[in-house]
DNA sequence: GCCGTTTTCGGCCCGACTGTTTTCAGTCG
C-alpha cells in the first residue's frame, strides 16, 4: 500500500508546528504548510507520481528541498528531519497548539517555564493557578486555556454544508431585519461551497450607527460571545458552530467580500500580486499610496490587478490565479445547465416516493429526463429488485412514458458490483435498460488492488455505464474504501464509462480534486442526486458546488446533454 | 523553504481583537 497523500501532508504540518515552536523563519514554516496543502489537495497519489519518476518540484509550493523530502517519505515512510527536530522539541507540543488561544509562543513558554508537554499537564497547571503567574499570562488567559481545553475534548468536526445552510438561513434573516443593514452575505468556505465548513463568516454592510453588532451577539442561539468589537465579533452558537461577523462600509463591500470569502491561500496570492503591481489590498479596498482605487465590488478588485473575476468556488490557490492571468479560467457548470437526474430511487426499493411523484417533481424542476435507478437484488435491506421486479418496473415506465409530455423517464437501475466484479443481474435484462448506474455496496475492506480490479472487471461488462459514488465515503462517518481511483478513471475513459459526482451532501463523491483530474483526463462525469425522495432532487445544488470546485464546465458533465446527445454518449449496443 | 515579464538573492499579505500591558505581543482569520 503506497503512502497516502494525507500522511505526507501530516508529516509536513507536524514539522511546521515544531519549527514554529523553535522560532524558525516563519516563511520557512509557511513553506512546509503550503507544501502540505498542495499535497493533500492533489487527486493523484504522490507516492505513485514519485514511482513514475515525475518531477514533484513542478507542483506549486514544492521546491527541490520538499520534493526530495517527499521522495524520502515515499521510500521509508519517515521524515528524518521531523525526528531530528522532535528530539529537541517534544512532538506532543504540536497538539497543544490546537487549543484555542494557544499559539506557538505561549506553548513554548508553557513548556520552558512549567514543563508542560501534554493536555493533561496543561489542565493540571491551569487548575492549580500556576499559569496566571507566568509573565505575559494572567488570570484571564488561564481561564481561556481551561475553556479551550473543555471545548477541545468535544468532537472536533466540521459541519456538513446543508446543516450549516440551515443555521445560516435563520441567522441571516435575523440580521437582515436590523436598522441600517444593507446587505448580509455568508462568505468563507460556505460561499466557496466546500463540503464541510469549520465556521460561518458573515459579511454585512450597514450604515454607521446600525445596532447590528448588538443584535448579533444577542441572537437567541448564541451560547458564548468570544470577542466583540466595532467591526468584528465572534460568537459560538448552541450547535457549536463559530460565527464571525464583519461589518464594513458599502464602498469596501467587494474588497471585504474577497477577504472574507478566502481562501486564505488565495488571498495571500492575490495580495502578493497586488504588491507586485504597486497596490496594497486589504478588506477595505485596493490602495495605491493610501488612496482607494477599487473595492466596491469583487470584480473591481480583480480588475484592478489585471485579473478577470474569479468564481468563489475556485479560490483555493490551486492554479486559478495563473489561469486567470492567461484568460483560461473555466466557464463553470451551473444549475441551469443540468437537464436531468441520472440516479434516484422510488418506493419500489428504499425511496420514499412513488415513480409518478418523482417524475412529477423532476418535470416541475424543468428536467428533460429522469433515470429511475432502484437498487438491485443484492441490497436486500432495500428490498432490491430481482429480474422479474425490474421487468415490472420497466413496463410501468414504458406505460408512463406514453402519457408523459416534456420529460422522458429513463429505465435504469443502481446495480451492485459483486465481489468478483460481476454485475448483480444478467445481461439479458440489463439490455432492456437505457443505462445502468453501478456501485459497490459491500466488501468495502478488500485490499486496494483487489477493489480496483473488482470495479474495472465490472466495467468490462458492456452494459456498465456510470460508476456511482466511486469511493463509498460518507463525510464525517466513513472513510473511502481503498481503491486506485486514477486507474479506474483511466479504465472508464477507455471503455466509454463515466463516473458519478454523487450530490448527496453526506457523500459528495467524487471529491473536487478528482473532478479536476477527470476533466484533465477528458473523462466526463454525471452529477446525480441519488434522491430517495422528491425533496432530495434539490441536492443537485451540492453536486454542482462540488463540480464547480473541481473546475468542471457544462461540457464535462454528462447530464447537461440533451436526451439525444446523452444517448449517443452512453454505450448501449 | 519557495520563487522570479522588475529578482537566482531578498523578499515573502494584512488587519481586528484581547489581555496584559503603559505601547505591544499573541492569536486568529
What do these coordinates show?
The structure is a single chain. The protein is built from 24 helices and 18 strands. The strands form five sheets. A five-stranded mixed beta sheet has the order 2-4-7-6-5, with helices on both faces. Strands 14-15-16-17-18 form a five-stranded parallel beta sheet, with helices on one face. Helix 1 (5-21) packs antiparallel against helix 2 (26-40), helix 1 (5-21) packs parallel to helix 5 and helix 22 crosses helix 23. The protein is globular, with a radius of gyration of 26 Å. It binds one DNA strand of 29 nucleotides through residues 25-32, 34-35, 60-66, 100-106, 135-138, 140-141, 144, 188, 199, 201, 226-234, 244, 246, 259-260, 262, 264, 267-272, 274-276, 280-284.
In short:
With 573 residues, the chain is α/β, with parallel strands linked by helices. 42% of the residues lie in helices and 13% in strands.
What are the key terms here?
573 residues, alpha/beta, five-stranded parallel beta sheet, 24 helices, globular, DNA-binding
Q: What would you call the structural class?
A: alpha/beta
Task: Work out the strand percent.
Answer: 5-15%
Please compute the radius of gyration using only Cα atoms.
Answer: 26 Å
> Fraction of residues in helices?
40-55%
Identify low-pLDDT runs.
none
Question: How many H/I helical runs?
Answer: 24
Instruction: Determine the mean pLDDT.
Output: 92
The beta-strand count equals: 18
Our measurement of the CA-to-CA distance between the termini, rounded to an integer number of angstroms, reads: 38 Å
* Major beta sheet summary: 5 strands, mixed
Order of strands across the main sheet: 2-4-7-6-5
Shape: globular
